[in-house]
Amino acid sequence: MALVIPVILGSVRQGRSGLRAARYVAGALASRGHEAPVVDPAELALPLLTRMYKEYPKGEAPEPLERLATLLRRSDAFVVVSAEYNHSIPPALSNTLDHFLEEYFWRPSAIVCYSAGRYGGVRAAMQLRAMLGELGTPSIPSLLPIPEIQKALDEEGRPLQPWLERPAGRFLDELTWYAEALRDKRQGGVPY
Question: NADPH-dependent FMN reductase-like domain: which residues (predicted)?
Answer without folding.
Answer: 7-146
